[in-house]
């Protein structure tokens, strides 16, 4: 679910799969602009089938989303920024469109209060999850990722305590080899 909101992927599961999750009731909508008297509202629908490109999550995009080009945190730029890319970013999947997620929601606990550690792209957030700091990183600098970061991670503590574990990755590992 990386780079997707909870409601985008699992929100509609509330109606037919698990009524206990904090999902969509079909009453939700967002104003496109908060600067006009009667702003156009985008309603959250369940008719997305495919999303391309990914929702923007660069440092600049997140800054626009939370600041909306202001100096005060207003949290008012999400809709405008998403619509600048694709209206699909403000829609969700029906449960039958994502059957694996539907089965997981039906059978397991769902964490529906999950927030980004820091308003930045993927790698700085992973660093924060692993070590409670991004070490100042605000973007995906492949060279720095390959070299590693100096802070200890939760995995270092696991190793120091003699516990076995594994880390699986597809491209560049997001942790360094401590051994």
Automatic annotation (TrEMBL):
Q: Which GO terms describe its molecular function?
A: hydrolase activity, acting on ester bonds
Q: Could you tell me which PANTHER family the record lists for this protein?
A: NON-SPECIFIC PHOSPHOLIPASE C4-RELATED (PTHR31956), NON-SPECIFIC PHOSPHOLIPASE C6 (PTHR31956:SF2)
The entry's protein name is Uncharacterized protein
GO BP annotations of the record are:
phospholipid catabolic process
The source's domain of life comes to: Eukaryota
Name the keywords, alphabetized.
Hydrolase
């Amino acid at each position: 679910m990386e780079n997707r909101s909870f409601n985008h992927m699992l929100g509609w599961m509330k109606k037919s799969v698990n009524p206990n999750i904090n999902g969509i009731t079909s009453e939700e909508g967002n104003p496109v602009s908060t600067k006009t008297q009667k702003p156009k509202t985008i309603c959250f629908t369940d008719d997305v089938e495919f999303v391309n490109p990914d929702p923007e999550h660069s440092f600049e995009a997140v800054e626009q989303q939370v600041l909306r080009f202001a100096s005060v945190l207003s949290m008012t730029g999400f809709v405008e920024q998403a619509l600048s890319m694709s209206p699909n970013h403000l829609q969700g999947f029906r449960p039958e469109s994502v059957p694996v997620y539907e089965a997981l929601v039906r059978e397991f606990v769902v964490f529906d209060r999950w927030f980004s550690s820091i308003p930045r792209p993927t790698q700085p957030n992973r660093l924060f999850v692993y070590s409670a700091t991004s070490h100042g990183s605000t973007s995906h600098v492949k060279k720095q990722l390959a070299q590693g970061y100096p802070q200890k991670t939760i995995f270092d503590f696991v190793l120091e305590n003699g516990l076995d574990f594994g880390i699986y990755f597809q491209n560049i590992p997001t942790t360094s080899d401590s051994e």
